[in-house]
């Protein structure tokens, strides 16, 4: 069961990843030689984001971690879409064959009636996982204090504009502060080991990562993206 405001679209699923798995990831991060200064969209600016990161895309040595996290996020995503079916049906005007074989537009009640297999097929036809990043924020100095959202019209392929939802898995706790803070919702999400946060990517969910105190903070984070137009709307 997830925790969330009645209409703030910020969902927290407690214990989405088990504590032992989280601890193993943190241990591997501490020992890794792959850590790099954390980047924002336009480069390395520690006054905006001060972290050490590992980008998992294409790293075979971290493929097991990437897989485990994607499985947990997928489960959380299905629950999120059951609560907010407009995530799919509002932007895409989806259609499926009805009992008579004729195409009909999906409604929110149709999503609620689907079992996990049917909903999963719909989700994977519309959405895809983004590249994953592991982030280490040092106590008393690390953080992402800049108020930001996740849509960013920089890259020529517009990949960053395909971001639909953001997610974070908190890999540890036992420190003070370090919350994910949402500006307009006036909500701070306190990190708890294994919890999964999902929220929209647009300016409506402008947020920042507050500085941890009394201990380092470790997270995994990425996005759920729309498939590109050539996949969603193939030429006929």
Shape: globular
Oligomer: single chain
Low-confidence stretches: none
Structural class: alpha+beta
Total helix count?
6
Element-level helix/strand string: EEHEEHHEEHHEEEEEEEEEEEH
How much strand? 25-35%
Number of strands: 17
Structure description:
The protein is an alpha+beta fold. The chain is 26% helix and 28% strand. The chain contains 6 helices and 17 strands. The protein has helices spanning 19-31, 63-83, 86-92, 108-113, 116-126, 229-232, and strands at residues 3-4, 11-13, 36-37, 52-55, 95-97, 103-105, 127-129, 133-137, 144-148, 163-170, 176-177, 180-182, 187-189, 196-200, 207-209, 212-213, 217-226. Strands 1, 2, 3, 4, 7, 8, 10, 14 and 17 form a 9-stranded antiparallel beta sheet that branches. Strands 9-15-12-13 form a 4-stranded antiparallel beta sheet, with no helix packed on it. A hairpin with a 6-residue loop joins strand 1 (3-4) and strand 2 (11-13). The protein is globular and about 60 Å long. The termini are far apart. The model has no long low-confidence stretch (mean pLDDT 94). Residues 135-224 form the Prolyl 4-hydroxylase alpha subunit Fe(2+) 2OG dioxygenase domain. Pfam families: 2OG-FeII_Oxy_3 (PF13640). This is Prolyl 4-hydroxylase alpha subunit Fe(2+) 2OG dioxygenase domain-containing protein.
């Amino acid at each position: 069961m997830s925790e969330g405001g009645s209409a703030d679209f910020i969902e927290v699923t407690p214990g989405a990843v088990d504590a032992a798995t989280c601890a193993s990831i943190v241990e591997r991060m501490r020992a890794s030689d792959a850590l790099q200064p954390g980047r924002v969209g336009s480069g390395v600016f520690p006054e905006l984001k001060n972290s050490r990161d590992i980008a998992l895309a294409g790293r075979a040595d971290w493929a097991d971690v990437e897989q485990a996290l994607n499985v947990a996020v997928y489960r959380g995503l299905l629950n999120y879409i059951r609560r907010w079916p407009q995530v799919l049906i509002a932007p895409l005007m989806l259609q499926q064959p009805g009992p008579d074989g004729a195409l009909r537009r999906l409604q929110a009640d149709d999503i609620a009636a689907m079992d996990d297999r049917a909903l999963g097929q719909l989700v994977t036809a519309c959405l895809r996982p983004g590249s994953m990043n592991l982030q280490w924020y040092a106590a008393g100095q690390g953080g992402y204090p800049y108020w930001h959202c996740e849509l960013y019209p920089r890259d020529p392929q517009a990949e960053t504009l395909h971001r639909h939802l953001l997610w974070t898995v908190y890999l540890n706790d036992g420190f003070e502060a370090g919350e994910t803070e949402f500006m307009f919702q006036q909500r701070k999400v306190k990190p708890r080991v294994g919890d999964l946060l999902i929220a929209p990517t647009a300016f409506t969910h402008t947020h920042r990562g507050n500085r941890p105190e009394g201990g380092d903070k470790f997270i995994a984070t990425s996005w759920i993206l729309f498939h590109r137009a050539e996949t969603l709307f193939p030429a006929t």
